Amino acid sequence: MEIKELNNVDIEGYSGNEIIFTSRSGKRDADDRAKGLRAINAMGLEDNTGLGLSVVDKNGVIEVQQMKRMDGPDITIKVPKGVTVSFTHTSPHGSEVNIKDVEGEIEISTVHNGINLTNVTGPMTINTVHGNIEGSLSATLKNPISIVSVHGHVDLALPTTVKASVKMSTVYGEIFVDPEFKVDATTAGGLNKYSSDTVTAKINGGGVDITLSSTHNNVYLRKK
């Protein structure tokens, strides 16, 4: 599934077989002048859902886009847990993206949006320019996992039982790691503090490759 320029969206994995769209927005006032007409935009998209969304199947890939550029519906999308989810957003008009309980591959690229990840497994490639990225991952992870912000912080929680090979980097920020993840460092506020630009660690002997990076902000690795 490819989701493009959706300003307000929560994506949740569930055990069903269908993709379900629901709106959390209040009911819009009916436009009497639009009766008998259909909503389209300059990209040729048509609201075929009644939710302010265009949803089309292109060669087996579901493409989701909102009709309005600045405004837009507040949408929850439930997907079968193993579905691959791709989300891209470039405008400054969006809110945080929330992804929960998805067991398929996740690809996210945003300019301004913050990103929240809850109980996801990967593989995943998460990139944002200005947003913060926060996550609490599943104990069952899949290679590879890359989580990168240019200006925002990256804050990730992992189960202490997970087997992972972690690479953390920052240019202008600092790196903080929970002491239960055994990496040599000084202590700062209950987390270990690292001064070098890049820190690598093997958790429980190593395993899934995890990359955490922020150019201008801090990187946090904490226990779940």
TrEMBL record:
Pfam family, one: DUF4097
Residue intervals of the DUF4097 domain: 95-210
Descriptive protein name: DUF4097 domain-containing protein
